[in-house]
Design goal:
The structure is a homotrimer.
Chain A lengths: L2 H13 L3 E2 L12 E2 L9 E5 L5 H6 L4 E4 L12 E4 L3 H12 L15 H7 L4 E2 L4 E2 L4 E2 L4 E2 L4 E2 L4 E2 L4 E2 L4 E2 L2 E3 L4 E2 L4 E4 L4 E4 L2 E4 L6 E3 L4 E2 L4 E3 L6 E3 L4 E2 L4 E2 L4 E2 L4 E2 L4 E2 L4 E2 L4 E2 L4 E2 L4 E2 L4 E2 L4 E2 L8 E3 L4 E2 H7 L2
Parallel strand pairs in A: 2-3, 3-4, 4-5, 6-9, 7-10, 8-11, 9-12, 10-13, 11-14, 12-15, 13-16, 14-19, 15-20, 16-21, 19-22, 20-23, 21-24, 22-25, 23-26, 24-27, 25-28, 26-29, 27-30, 28-31, 29-32, 30-33, 32-34
Antiparallel strand pairs in A: 1-5, 17-18, 34-35
């Protein structure tokens, strides 16, 4: 986006009854990107909408911060501050300007021709109807099926196998990963905000990071993070029809059977096994070496080494005792 | 189908030990279509197989009605009546003649060339390998991914985003809808009848109607209605891997998390939120403003404003109390 | 694989601290294939790693058998015996040489051109972007959608309907079967072994056998067997988003609603109906005429004619009584 557009954008925000809190000439600021407080650098625009991000606020390098009237006092006077009735929402609108694909499952229609692919990616094995956008890195000994879509800025490691009908977006796929047919990796997450009966989509500019040796089953879906990332640790295996929501972190050597679902922002340790059709609520912490029985519903944090089953999930021994 | 075929069809029914109840010369009737009593017009053929459709029977304009011996007395003598041992099944066979695609996930192989698409749909954004059948309306600012299939008679509104690998059939998609990668919209529903160990598929000629502003997640499937329609109200959002069966009606501003399943013919009100992996049985009524917790199994009707969780689903407070 | 490679393979095994138990000159053996004890013929290599396969061991025609030190005494001295610390794993490695595609969702990139398809399969109905490998048999009146992938050695019967975006591998599809859009049939199963924190994939060279008149719903996934087969009996119907794991056997006239999951190696009788989102654990036996309610979790064997519901599944009457 050019700087003219960005100025328009800031004026748009200010014109919506938002208030420019300090006196800096906003027209002279060249805004380079929009992100969270932690990732912001000089010339970033960010937002501060909850007291719990105070420590991040203190360290942020963002030049412009959108906030609410009640929270403005916490922000350094060196920053340009925009006061909004809905800082999250106004920030989301900014995102839409910077990252127009962050709300939708869109392709850019800017893809390499087959000849360009052959020239740039020598020795790459790929099938029919391959759609590859620009600026993708692909390693050695990679094997790609038919009808595969890989969107811009993805990184694919060495010895990766990608089945047919697979879609990969905003993702880093490390060495020796196997993605089975029909999987969708890096789709925008499921986030909305209803304000006065109008729905606003939450942007998703995060990534999916799949570490070495993982396997993703057929027709499974892994959503990318909203601002942060969705992460799978090394040698983690997901079976078919599994759902992994935005900003989930999964550790190493985990095995999740078919139709498991992990809700948004949950963190899971290493060596965790989850039986088929089990589900884990959002924003939970699941420890290391945890075993969760098939069809369980986990709605609380789980400590290391626990074995759980049931809905709501309980210690396995109790489940057996209660269901004699 | 020409009228000769249709005569054959009626004779076929009559030859199967069915009885033509009144004396009208069936050969002189030109049957135009086959549908339910409510939608029938003059020259429609329909069926009456259950007393609960009596009020529809009284108003129907159908010229020919298939029924059972026990129910024939309720039908006006002005109609041509065919008495069958299995009126539903014989009607289903009629359907198969009129709508040969009503039983299968078939394409017609009659699609526009890329040049025809570009000529007819100016300014349409579409990706590789687009398969578009005839007689489809597509609005402005529509954005279509790769490998998309849109079958005949669909209507796509303005500002619609359709991801890649999406299949749309028998559907009306209104403005501002976003269909994510891999979703299947308008597939025939799951209906069978076993009679004497022989299986007969139930036809599905209904539609899927997705109203303004909805979003459908990746790899989700929405079946079309058998005779009526499957309907999503405005601004309703479905996450990934969701299943919506035939003839389900969902209201406005509903949010269903991943892997939710709604069985056939269930009606759901407005502002209903359903957590991940929850399921709702068929033929139920769920009120407005209902909240259903993740993984719940709903097997009874639910009144407005209720908050439920568990399997079977119970009021949330009881669920918490019972699971301390 | 030529015999030179196979010799290399055996030496590879022997060099890994494995012991050649009897004195036969292994160099003179020409190994033709690798399979289980039951399917082995002369010049097969197989493995014996558990006492429960003793009866198969007694009848096997395999020329070479990999086993553990403790089990070697049960094997006839006429066989060439290789003693391994991990006979399963060493056998799995052998597989990888014989069947390089048994671990991955790969295509071979060896497919017929459209002209070859038209010439060889006269009157076949097929859509855009059809990928068909060599050595596939296809019957009469077959109807194939767009973007379909059928890999080598598959057999497709008469009057089969295959929707769009369907992938079929290692499968036999009998007459009158209908496979809906987006289904993945014959994918490798989900099997791993972690030894000393290193993960080894279990090979899958079995097939999926779908008998006459079945229907498979959209985006459902059926994994092929590891060595044996995954089997669906005649007139069995699966709805959308169903998962059938490796080596599952399902009988005739079964109806499984959407999002059902069957874990590996479970055997299910005839006329079994399963409600939506229900799951069945692995290695179970489910009798004939069983009815399992929606969302149930079955974790024990089930006798003929039982009606179950709940998690864990219990007799339907008890479920109702317990949930008043």
């Amino acid at each position: 986006m050019n700087s003219e557009k960005k100025k328009y954008l800031l004026h748009f925000l200010l014109n919506k009854n938002n208030i420019l809190f300090n006196k800096k000439k906003i027209d002279n600021i060249f805004i380079k990107n929009a992100t969270d407080l932690e990732k912001s650098k000089k010339n970033s625009i960010s937002f501060f909408s909850s007291f719990k991000y105070l420590s991040q606020l203190k360290k942020t390098k963002a030049s412009v911060i959108i906030t609410s009237d009640g929270l403005k006092k916490y922000i350094s006077k060196k920053k340009i501050i925009i006061i909004s009735k809905n800082p999250d929402l106004d920030f989301a609108k900014i995102f839409c300007f910077f990252y127009p694909h962050s709300y939708f499952s869109k392709i850019s229609y800017k893809n390499l021709s087959i000849n360009e692919i052959k020239k740039k990616y020598k020795n790459l094995n790929f099938g029919l109807n391959f759609y590859l956008e620009y600026n993708v890195k692909i390693g050695k000994d990679v094997h790609i099926g038919n009808n595969v879509i890989i969107k811009e800025n993805c990184i694919i490691g060495n010895n990766v196998v990608i089945g047919s009908n697979v879609i990969i977006e905003n993702s880093i796929i490390d060495d020796n990963v196997h993605i089975c047919d029909g999987a969708v990796i890096g789709k925008k997450g499921f986030g909305f905000k209803f304000i006065d009966d109008v729905c606003y989509r939450i942007p998703h500019i995060g990534r999916v990071i799949i570490n070495k040796g993982c396997e993703i089953g057929s027709n499974s879906v892994i959503d990318r993070g909203s601002i942060g990332d969705t992460i799978l640790g090394e040698d983690t295996f997901l079976d078919n029809l599994v759902h992994v929501a935005h900003n989930v972190h999964i550790g190493k050597r985990c095995v999740f059977a078919a139709q498991v679902g992990i809700a948004g922002s949950t963190k899971i340790g290493n060596n965790v096994t989850i039986g088929g059709q089990a589900g884990i609520s959002g924003h939970l912490n699941i420890g290391n070496n945890v075993k969760i029985g098939g069809k369980s519903g986990v709605i609380k944090n789980v400590k290391d080494n626990e074995i759980l089953m049931g809905y709501p999930a309980q210690p396995f021994r109790e489940f057996v005792k209660n269901n004699k």
